[in-house]
Design a protein that fits this description.
Length: 142
């Protein structure tokens, strides 16, 4: 019976992990979207529910945060990401930076490690710690 409870918990956790939820906002529309990010007034977006017509059936599997400086004005854009890879060569700690002419700077940070990973600095509970804690308590109860 203990193994059944652990299997059910693991299935529930992994079933919700197949889609990602990301913050979706723009700092030019709401200043709380800039850094430091204040997510108290934003609802997190289920990227599985978003469809972009020009991408066909492509599903979003990542979150993206774009920081751009155009003519001295900083903007932040947080959204679901459809193309690319997390971070640089799979390492989410690094962002892709681009500069251009006419005083333009852009930084793309892409992640898929957890829901809401496009906050920039979110402290959260480790999924593996949560799973092991639940399994431990279920083991002791049964």
């Amino acid at each position: 019976m203990k193994y059944l409870y652990c299997a059910l918990v693991l299935c529930a956790v992994f079933a919700t992990g197949w889609s990602i939820k990301c913050w979706d906002c723009r700092s030019d529309a709401d200043p709380k979207c800039s850094d430091p990010f204040d997510n108290t007034t934003f609802a997190i977006t289920d990227c599985k529910q978003q469809k972009l017509a020009h991408l066909g059936n492509l599903q979003s599997t990542m979150c993206r945060k774009i920081r751009q400086k155009i003519h001295g004005v900083w903007r932040y854009i947080r959204s679901c990401a459809y193309l690319g890879e997390p971070g640089i060569q799979g390492d989410e700690r690094f962002c892709l930076m681009r500069t251009g002419t006419y005083n333009i700077f852009m930084e793309y940070c892409t992640c898929n490690s957890k829901d809401g990973c496009n906050t920039g600095s979110l402290k959260g509970l480790s999924p593996s710690l949560l799973i092991s804690t639940v399994c431990f308590f279920l083991w002791k109860i049964v």
